[in-house]
Structure prediction request, 302 residues.
Amino acid sequence: MLVDRTRENAAAETLAILRPKSTLPVAVLRFCAQQPLGAFGAAVLIFAVVVAVLAPMLAPHSPTAIEVAEKFTPPFGKQILGTDELGRDVLSRLIFGARISMSVSLLSVGIAISAGTLIGIFSAYSGGKTDLAIQRLVDTMMAFPAIIMALALMAALGASQTNVIVALVVILLPGAVRVVRSQVLSIKEQDYTLAARAIGAGSTRIMLRHILPNVMATYIVLSTITLGYAIVVEASLSFLGVGIPPDIASWGGMLNLGATTYIDVSPWLSVFPGITIAVIVFSVNLLGDSLRDVLDPRLRGR
Prediction:
Protein backbone atom coordinates (compact mmCIF):
# COMPACT_ATOMS: atom_id res chain seq x y z
CA MET A 1 0.00 0.00 0.00
CA LEU A 2 2.81 2.40 0.94
CA VAL A 3 4.74 1.50 -2.22
CA ASP A 4 1.76 2.18 -4.45
CA ARG A 5 1.14 5.52 -2.75
CA THR A 6 4.79 6.52 -3.17
CA ARG A 7 4.77 5.55 -6.82
CA GLU A 8 1.57 7.45 -7.48
CA ASN A 9 2.95 10.59 -5.86
CA ALA A 10 6.14 10.43 -7.88
CA ALA A 11 4.26 10.01 -11.17
CA ALA A 12 1.40 12.38 -10.31
CA GLU A 13 2.77 15.35 -12.22
CA THR A 14 3.20 13.44 -15.47
CA LEU A 15 -0.12 11.64 -15.17
CA ALA A 16 -1.90 14.92 -14.41
CA ILE A 17 -0.57 16.34 -17.65
CA LEU A 18 -1.45 13.31 -19.74
CA ARG A 19 -4.87 12.90 -18.12
CA PRO A 20 -5.97 16.33 -16.91
CA LYS A 21 -8.98 16.69 -14.65
CA SER A 22 -10.46 19.34 -16.90
CA THR A 23 -12.47 18.34 -19.91
CA LEU A 24 -10.79 17.91 -23.26
CA PRO A 25 -12.17 21.15 -24.80
CA VAL A 26 -10.91 23.13 -21.79
CA ALA A 27 -7.49 21.49 -22.02
CA VAL A 28 -7.31 22.23 -25.75
CA LEU A 29 -8.30 25.85 -25.23
CA ARG A 30 -5.72 26.22 -22.47
CA PHE A 31 -3.02 24.77 -24.72
CA CYS A 32 -4.02 27.13 -27.55
CA ALA A 33 -3.87 30.13 -25.20
CA GLN A 34 -0.50 29.16 -23.72
CA GLN A 35 1.13 27.89 -26.90
CA PRO A 36 -0.39 29.63 -29.95
CA LEU A 37 2.45 28.50 -32.24
CA GLY A 38 1.98 24.94 -31.09
CA ALA A 39 -1.75 25.20 -31.73
CA PHE A 40 -1.01 26.45 -35.24
CA GLY A 41 1.32 23.49 -35.81
CA ALA A 42 -1.30 21.06 -34.54
CA ALA A 43 -3.95 22.60 -36.80
CA VAL A 44 -1.71 22.27 -39.86
CA LEU A 45 -0.86 18.66 -39.00
CA ILE A 46 -4.52 17.76 -38.47
CA PHE A 47 -5.39 19.46 -41.75
CA ALA A 48 -2.71 17.42 -43.56
CA VAL A 49 -4.01 14.18 -42.07
CA VAL A 50 -7.60 15.03 -43.04
CA VAL A 51 -6.50 15.86 -46.59
CA ALA A 52 -4.64 12.54 -46.78
CA VAL A 53 -7.65 10.57 -45.57
CA LEU A 54 -10.13 12.37 -47.84
CA ALA A 55 -7.82 12.62 -50.85
CA PRO A 56 -10.17 10.84 -53.31
CA MET A 57 -12.97 13.24 -52.36
CA LEU A 58 -10.89 16.43 -52.32
CA ALA A 59 -8.75 15.97 -55.43
CA PRO A 60 -10.33 17.67 -58.45
CA HIS A 61 -8.75 15.18 -60.86
CA SER A 62 -7.12 11.77 -60.82
CA PRO A 63 -3.40 12.05 -59.97
CA THR A 64 -2.57 9.65 -62.79
CA ALA A 65 -4.88 11.09 -65.48
CA ILE A 66 -2.72 12.03 -68.49
CA GLU A 67 -3.72 14.95 -70.75
CA VAL A 68 -0.75 15.56 -73.05
CA ALA A 69 -2.53 18.47 -74.72
CA GLU A 70 -2.63 20.24 -71.33
CA LYS A 71 1.02 19.69 -70.33
CA PHE A 72 2.94 22.52 -68.64
CA THR A 73 -0.20 24.57 -68.08
CA PRO A 74 0.80 27.45 -65.76
CA PRO A 75 -0.84 27.88 -62.34
CA PHE A 76 -4.01 29.85 -61.62
CA GLY A 77 -5.59 28.94 -64.92
CA LYS A 78 -7.78 25.97 -65.75
CA GLN A 79 -5.85 24.01 -63.08
CA ILE A 80 -5.17 25.94 -59.89
CA LEU A 81 -1.56 24.80 -59.54
CA GLY A 82 -0.94 23.97 -63.18
CA THR A 83 0.02 20.66 -64.79
CA ASP A 84 3.20 18.65 -65.23
CA GLU A 85 4.97 17.24 -68.28
CA LEU A 86 2.18 14.69 -68.87
CA GLY A 87 -0.69 17.06 -68.23
CA ARG A 88 -1.39 15.66 -64.76
CA ASP A 89 -2.96 18.06 -62.28
CA VAL A 90 -0.34 19.25 -59.76
CA LEU A 91 -2.90 20.00 -57.04
CA SER A 92 -4.38 16.51 -57.25
CA ARG A 93 -0.92 14.96 -57.06
CA LEU A 94 -0.07 17.10 -54.02
CA ILE A 95 -3.26 15.96 -52.30
CA PHE A 96 -2.58 12.29 -53.00
CA GLY A 97 1.07 12.80 -52.10
CA ALA A 98 -0.08 13.73 -48.59
CA ARG A 99 -1.29 10.15 -48.23
CA ILE A 100 2.21 8.83 -48.82
CA SER A 101 3.98 11.30 -46.54
CA MET A 102 1.49 11.08 -43.68
CA SER A 103 1.10 7.30 -43.73
CA VAL A 104 4.82 6.58 -44.08
CA SER A 105 5.91 9.10 -41.45
CA LEU A 106 3.19 8.28 -38.89
CA LEU A 107 3.69 4.52 -39.19
CA SER A 108 7.48 4.66 -39.09
CA VAL A 109 7.57 7.09 -36.16
CA GLY A 110 4.95 5.12 -34.23
CA ILE A 111 6.83 1.84 -34.66
CA ALA A 112 10.32 3.28 -34.09
CA ILE A 113 9.52 5.40 -31.03
CA SER A 114 7.38 2.69 -29.41
CA ALA A 115 10.02 0.01 -29.94
CA GLY A 116 12.79 2.41 -28.94
CA THR A 117 10.98 3.27 -25.70
CA LEU A 118 10.59 -0.37 -24.70
CA ILE A 119 14.18 -1.24 -25.63
CA GLY A 120 15.49 1.82 -23.81
CA ILE A 121 13.58 0.90 -20.64
CA PHE A 122 14.80 -2.70 -20.79
CA SER A 123 18.40 -1.67 -21.45
CA ALA A 124 18.59 0.87 -18.63
CA TYR A 125 16.79 -1.30 -16.10
CA SER A 126 18.78 -4.44 -16.90
CA GLY A 127 22.18 -2.75 -16.74
CA GLY A 128 25.41 -4.73 -16.79
CA LYS A 129 26.39 -6.68 -19.89
CA THR A 130 22.89 -6.53 -21.35
CA ASP A 131 22.90 -2.73 -21.31
CA LEU A 132 26.46 -2.67 -22.63
CA ALA A 133 25.63 -4.94 -25.57
CA ILE A 134 22.48 -3.01 -26.51
CA GLN A 135 24.24 0.37 -26.31
CA ARG A 136 27.20 -0.79 -28.41
CA LEU A 137 24.71 -1.92 -31.07
CA VAL A 138 23.00 1.47 -30.84
CA ASP A 139 26.38 3.21 -31.16
CA THR A 140 27.13 1.16 -34.28
CA MET A 141 23.83 2.13 -35.88
CA MET A 142 24.27 5.82 -34.97
CA ALA A 143 27.82 5.86 -36.38
CA PHE A 144 26.40 5.78 -39.91
CA PRO A 145 24.81 8.98 -41.27
CA ALA A 146 21.06 8.45 -41.30
CA ILE A 147 20.51 9.25 -44.96
CA ILE A 148 23.42 6.98 -46.00
CA MET A 149 22.00 4.07 -44.02
CA ALA A 150 18.55 4.71 -45.48
CA LEU A 151 19.99 4.75 -49.02
CA ALA A 152 21.84 1.49 -48.36
CA LEU A 153 18.70 -0.18 -47.04
CA MET A 154 16.61 1.01 -49.99
CA ALA A 155 19.28 -0.20 -52.43
CA ALA A 156 19.15 -3.63 -50.78
CA LEU A 157 15.38 -3.87 -50.31
CA GLY A 158 14.12 -2.04 -53.40
CA ALA A 159 11.84 0.93 -53.89
CA SER A 160 8.42 0.55 -52.25
CA GLN A 161 6.35 2.22 -49.58
CA THR A 162 6.81 -0.68 -47.14
CA ASN A 163 10.59 -0.63 -47.56
CA VAL A 164 10.67 3.13 -46.93
CA ILE A 165 8.90 2.51 -43.61
CA VAL A 166 11.44 -0.21 -42.74
CA ALA A 167 14.35 2.10 -43.57
CA LEU A 168 12.89 4.92 -41.48
CA VAL A 169 12.30 2.62 -38.50
CA VAL A 170 15.93 1.48 -38.62
CA ILE A 171 17.37 5.01 -38.63
CA LEU A 172 14.92 6.41 -36.05
CA LEU A 173 15.16 3.56 -33.55
CA PRO A 174 18.68 4.22 -32.10
CA GLY A 175 17.96 7.83 -31.16
CA ALA A 176 14.76 6.84 -29.35
CA VAL A 177 16.58 4.12 -27.42
CA ARG A 178 19.31 6.51 -26.33
CA VAL A 179 16.92 9.28 -25.19
CA VAL A 180 14.63 6.98 -23.22
CA ARG A 181 17.54 5.08 -21.64
CA SER A 182 19.07 8.29 -20.32
CA GLN A 183 15.82 9.14 -18.53
CA VAL A 184 15.22 5.64 -17.16
CA LEU A 185 18.71 5.56 -15.62
CA SER A 186 17.53 8.18 -13.13
CA ILE A 187 13.96 6.90 -12.78
CA LYS A 188 15.07 3.41 -11.74
CA GLU A 189 16.91 4.90 -8.75
CA GLN A 190 13.83 6.68 -7.41
CA ASP A 191 12.42 5.60 -4.06
CA TYR A 192 9.23 4.07 -5.45
CA THR A 193 11.21 1.86 -7.85
CA LEU A 194 13.61 0.75 -5.13
CA ALA A 195 10.71 0.06 -2.75
CA ALA A 196 8.90 -2.02 -5.38
CA ARG A 197 12.05 -4.04 -5.95
CA ALA A 198 12.53 -4.49 -2.21
CA ILE A 199 9.11 -6.07 -1.67
CA GLY A 200 9.71 -8.52 -4.52
CA ALA A 201 7.94 -6.96 -7.50
CA GLY A 202 9.03 -8.58 -10.76
CA SER A 203 11.16 -6.76 -13.31
CA THR A 204 8.40 -6.75 -15.91
CA ARG A 205 5.92 -5.21 -13.46
CA ILE A 206 8.40 -2.55 -12.38
CA MET A 207 9.22 -1.59 -15.97
CA LEU A 208 5.60 -1.47 -17.16
CA ARG A 209 3.82 -0.17 -14.04
CA HIS A 210 6.42 2.00 -12.36
CA ILE A 211 8.80 3.24 -15.08
CA LEU A 212 6.79 3.37 -18.30
CA PRO A 213 4.20 5.94 -17.06
CA ASN A 214 7.03 8.28 -16.13
CA VAL A 215 8.51 8.32 -19.66
CA MET A 216 5.22 8.92 -21.49
CA ALA A 217 5.79 12.68 -21.67
CA THR A 218 9.17 12.02 -23.32
CA TYR A 219 7.49 9.54 -25.66
CA ILE A 220 4.93 12.12 -26.84
CA VAL A 221 7.47 14.90 -27.35
CA LEU A 222 9.95 12.59 -29.08
CA SER A 223 7.24 11.34 -31.45
CA THR A 224 6.17 14.81 -32.58
CA ILE A 225 9.71 16.09 -33.01
CA THR A 226 10.76 12.98 -34.95
CA LEU A 227 7.70 13.17 -37.22
CA GLY A 228 9.02 16.20 -39.11
CA TYR A 229 12.39 14.50 -39.60
CA ALA A 230 10.68 11.38 -40.97
CA ILE A 231 8.76 13.47 -43.53
CA VAL A 232 12.01 15.07 -44.71
CA VAL A 233 13.81 11.71 -45.02
CA GLU A 234 10.91 10.14 -46.92
CA ALA A 235 10.83 13.08 -49.32
CA SER A 236 14.63 12.90 -49.67
CA LEU A 237 14.54 9.21 -50.59
CA SER A 238 11.83 9.85 -53.19
CA PHE A 239 13.78 12.88 -54.46
CA LEU A 240 16.84 10.66 -54.98
CA GLY A 241 14.73 8.09 -56.82
CA VAL A 242 15.09 5.24 -54.31
CA GLY A 243 11.97 5.77 -52.21
CA ILE A 244 8.40 5.71 -53.47
CA PRO A 245 8.16 4.39 -57.08
CA PRO A 246 7.88 7.19 -59.69
CA ASP A 247 4.39 6.13 -60.82
CA ILE A 248 2.98 6.95 -57.36
CA ALA A 249 2.34 10.60 -56.50
CA SER A 250 4.72 11.70 -53.70
CA TRP A 251 6.06 15.08 -52.67
CA GLY A 252 9.67 14.03 -52.98
CA GLY A 253 9.14 12.54 -56.43
CA MET A 254 7.36 15.67 -57.64
CA LEU A 255 10.17 17.82 -56.24
CA ASN A 256 12.78 15.70 -57.98
CA LEU A 257 11.05 15.91 -61.36
CA GLY A 258 10.53 19.65 -61.15
CA ALA A 259 13.96 20.56 -59.81
CA THR A 260 16.13 18.33 -61.98
CA THR A 261 14.36 18.20 -65.32
CA TYR A 262 11.86 20.99 -65.85
CA ILE A 263 13.05 23.81 -63.58
CA ASP A 264 13.59 26.14 -66.58
CA VAL A 265 10.34 25.23 -68.32
CA SER A 266 7.93 25.01 -65.40
CA PRO A 267 9.38 26.04 -62.03
CA TRP A 268 6.03 25.56 -60.30
CA LEU A 269 6.56 21.79 -60.49
CA SER A 270 9.22 22.10 -57.78
CA VAL A 271 8.00 25.22 -55.96
CA PHE A 272 4.65 23.86 -54.77
CA PRO A 273 5.93 20.50 -53.42
CA GLY A 274 8.84 22.30 -51.76
CA ILE A 275 6.54 24.79 -50.03
CA THR A 276 4.23 21.99 -48.92
CA ILE A 277 7.08 19.99 -47.35
CA ALA A 278 8.51 23.09 -45.66
CA VAL A 279 5.16 24.16 -44.16
CA ILE A 280 4.32 20.68 -42.84
CA VAL A 281 7.75 20.10 -41.29
CA PHE A 282 7.85 23.59 -39.78
CA SER A 283 4.40 23.10 -38.26
CA VAL A 284 5.29 19.71 -36.80
CA ASN A 285 8.44 21.18 -35.22
CA LEU A 286 6.39 24.00 -33.70
CA LEU A 287 4.01 21.45 -32.19
CA GLY A 288 6.88 19.36 -30.85
CA ASP A 289 8.58 22.35 -29.21
CA SER A 290 5.31 23.47 -27.62
CA LEU A 291 4.56 20.00 -26.25
CA ARG A 292 8.07 19.87 -24.82
CA ASP A 293 7.51 23.19 -23.04
CA VAL A 294 4.20 21.96 -21.61
CA LEU A 295 5.16 18.40 -20.66
CA ASP A 296 8.73 18.93 -19.45
CA PRO A 297 8.55 20.10 -15.81
CA ARG A 298 11.98 21.75 -16.13
CA LEU A 299 10.65 24.07 -18.86
CA ARG A 300 7.07 24.60 -17.70
CA GLY A 301 7.86 27.60 -15.54
CA ARG A 302 9.73 29.53 -18.21
